[in-house]
Design goal:
With about 230 residues, the chain is of the alpha/beta class. About 50% of the residues lie in helices and about 15% in strands. The protein has twelve helices and six strands.
Length: about 230
């Protein structure tokens, strides 16, 4: 089953540019010991070039390498970071998220688990859905089908998540277009964003959708915010 694709690599660059419109140079974190990591490099470079951005590769295959990669990215002036889908990185996601915050680097990841760990944003296949579909493969094999006869399954469900708390820490103003298209905006933090928009109830419902707007109204007290009145 295929998880990461060139299209996702390109999409991540585009989303990072939307989050950081002034970016002209981004870092692309890969593990050089993983041959698959370089497959999507051309896609990232091409997507960045189309947006007037230079993508510069930084390598890491150990914990110390991760520290060095972030320090190097900050030193050469990267305005953001694209983190490739990679088993070692996934196992080090808490460390990577902490380094991104320490070096004030807006980063986009492939899986929402990074955002759950405190990362800024992610776009990529749903791991939960991938595991479910993998289980279906196992079931077909156990019932007698040959693995070689099974088609390669492509992701069908994608998650786009944003962490507004991290955005605030990094001094970023999340564009409303990103909020409107995100599948998940760390729940309570989305309600804070609705409040900070300054819109009254009818505008909230029109822009953010009635579910979010109604949820926000029920969450003001929990967030210790005063409901906006401007419409």
């Amino acid at each position: 089953m295929s998880i990461f694709t060139a299209e996702i690599a390109s999409k991540n660059v585009n989303l990072l540019k939307e989050m950081v419109p002034t970016a002209t140079l981004v870092a692309y974190l890969i593990n050089p010991t993983n041959p698959a990591a370089k497959i999507y490099l051309d896609s990232v470079v091409a997507a960045a070039s189309a947006l007037g951005i230079t993508a510069r590769v930084v390598n890491a295959s150990t914990e110390q390498d991760l520290d060095d990669a972030f320090a190097s990215s900050k030193k050469f002036g990267a305005a953001g970071l694209v983190v490739i889908d990679e088993p070692f990185f996934h196992s080090q996601r808490n460390r990577i998220v902490a380094l991104a915050e320490r070096y004030a680097l807006p980063a986009i990841y492939t899986f929402r688990e990074y955002v759950t760990a405190g990362g800024l944003m992610s776009y990529g296949p749903s791991l939960t859905d991938a595991y479910r579909r993998g289980g279906m493969y196992v079931a077909r094999i156990l019932t007698g089908e040959k693995p070689a006869d099974l088609p390669v399954m492509q992701p069908t469900k994608f998650d786009f998540a944003i962490n507004l708390k991290m955005a605030k820490i990094l001094g970023l103003n999340v564009p409303p277009t990103l909020l409107a298209t995100a599948d998940e905006v760390m729940n309570r933090l989305l309600f804070a964003a609705v409040h900070e928009s300054g819109c009254g109830p009818s505008r909230q419902a029109a822009f953010f959708g009635p579910t979010v707007a109604n949820g926000a109204l029920r969450t003001w007290q929990d967030l210790q915010l005063a409901p906006p009145s401007r419409d």
